[in-house]
Structures are given as structure tokens and as C-alpha cells.
Amino acid sequence: MSQYDYAGLYQFLLHTPEQGLRKMLVDQKSFTDSHFNLMLKVVRGCSETDFCAHAENADFPKVKMGPAETKIKENFWKDLTTICSGRGILGPAQKTAA
Description:
Helices cover 59% and strands 0% of the residues. The chain contains six helices and no strands. α1 (6-15) packs across α4. The radius of gyration is 13 Å and the shape is globular.
């Protein structure tokens, strides 16, 4: 089980207007337009379950990446986790009863 609530993050990213997300996340230092574009491709290109699996495994669904996105993909999930937890939109996973 993941230490983060990626399912909640997926729902937030999926249902929040793109312009609002861009203002909230893109700072051009640790999270650039390339990060943002790749994030949208991943969110739009897979289900919640798949998103969680990709986030935990630090891999990607089949999405077409441009040169700038290919350049950042190695650290993408770490960068996304850092920026989202820092902005308060990614929290720890909730413990579930057995």
C-alpha cells in the first residue's frame, strides 16, 4: 500500500479546472509547464486505479511524450509528490480496517 493518497489526488486533478491547477502547481522551478502537461496526459489517459499504480511504481501509461517531457520523466513522480504534498493536495494514505 502506498504512503500517499494517490486516489484522492487523481480525483482532485481530474475534476479541478485546468487553469486553476496551472496557477496552483506551476512555479517554473520545481514544477514546470512540461511537468504540468505530462501530469494532464497521465490523468486523462488512465483510470484512478492505473494512476495509483503508476504513481507507486514511478512509471507511465502509454502516452506520447515530447522532448521536454521525456527529459523530466525520470524524476516526474517525485516532483509531483513533492509539489502536491507541499501545496496540501496530497496527504498520507488513510489506514483501512482489515
